[in-house]
User: Which sequence fits this backbone?
């Protein structure tokens, strides 16, 4: 079982590797207090990226659009600053894939499905496979 910090570190490493393979130069902030985990640079464009490690639950990868941290006083959450990040990179260990989505201020959370629903629903399904490239 991984410690939460270890999972986050693994997610960032997987994101760096995936972005590198996609031709991006990776820049790392010198503080853990930045609103993003890394910056990707390609073709004269910088992208601030917040990385999330998310395990599959009911065939979905879900990201709540909040910033969360722990300290000796417990777990804390606050809404993300939508101006501070350009992308989420979601690493899922079960699929060993990185998924790239833009933050959406109109949603509380973002859910990506890795397989078709058992009830064969077709409408309003967001498939993870459609988010493996940087938009």
Assistant:
């Amino acid at each position: 079982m991984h410690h939460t910090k270890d999972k986050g570190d693994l997610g960032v490493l997987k994101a760096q590797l995936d972005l590198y393979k996609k031709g991006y130069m990776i820049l790392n902030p010198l503080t853990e207090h930045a609103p993003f985990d890394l910056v990707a640079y390609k073709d004269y464009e910088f992208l601030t990226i917040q990385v999330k490690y998310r395990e599959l639950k009911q065939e979905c990868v879900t990201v709540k659009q909040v910033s969360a941290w722990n300290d000796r006083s417990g777990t804390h959450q606050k809404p993300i600053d939508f101006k501070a990040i350009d992308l989420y990179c979601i690493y899922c260990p079960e699929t060993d894939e990185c998924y790239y989505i833009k933050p959406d201020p109109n949603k509380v959370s973002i859910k990506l499905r890795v397989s078709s629903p058992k009830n064969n629903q077709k409408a309003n399904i967001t498939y993870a496979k459609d988010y493996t490239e940087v938009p």
Observations:
- The CA atoms of residues 69 and 75 lie 6 Å apart.
